[in-house]
Amino acid sequence: MSGMHQARLIDILLVEDDPGDVRLTREALKGNRVSNRLFVVEDGEEAMSFLRREGQYADAPRPDLVLLDLNLPRKNGREVLEEIKSTPDLRSIPVVVLTTSRQERDILHAYDLNANCYITKPVGWEQFLEVVGQIEHFWMGIVTLPVKGD
After folding, report:
1. Which residues carry this modification: 4-aspartylphosphate (predicted)?
2. pLDDT tens across 54-103, in order?
């Protein structure tokens, strides 16, 4: 039974169109203890194709966690969130909304759409690292994620 609790690789889908934020997230996750694979898509349409394993994403893994920027081209983060949470096969995937917006209505709206967590992007690199580390610690260290079924 000893193999039961061995750490598994965590698949994270980052939906983010800002190359700087993608780079920061990649760096931040690299420095953390949990083994993870980061997949990046740049807009909401691509995010849904990845999650639905359509086209070029036919072999995409089901992510353990989605980090979702709200301000995206083609299909915004709110629409993506709504679609994920209203799709029975996808709605159990935890979604962490990452955004620059501090507006109360955006925060409430994200939670109304069943976001699991809402984080306002900090400006500094140190803060950003800390936030990503906390997300990872919380979701990967404390919360028990559903076992992946394909």
Report:
1. 69
2. 999 999 999 988 999 888 888 888 899 999 999 999 988 888 888 776 67
- From CA 19, how far away is CA 40, in angstroms rounded? 10
Q: What is the pLDDT of residues 2-36, one digit of tens each?
A: 444 445 678 999 999 989 889 888 887 787 666 78
Q: Token pair of 91, please?
A: 């709605």
Closest C-alpha to 37, from 131, 119, 125, 148: 148
- Reported in sequence order, the residue ranges of the chain that DSSP labels E, i.e. its strands, are 10-15, 36-41, 65-69, 95-99, 117-120
The helix/strand/coil state of 6 is coil
Rounded Cα distance, 42 and 46, in Å = 7
Give the chain's domains with CATH numbers.
8-139 (3.40.50.2300)
Please check whether residue 66 is in contact with residue 11, taking contact to mean a CB–CB distance below 8 angstroms. no
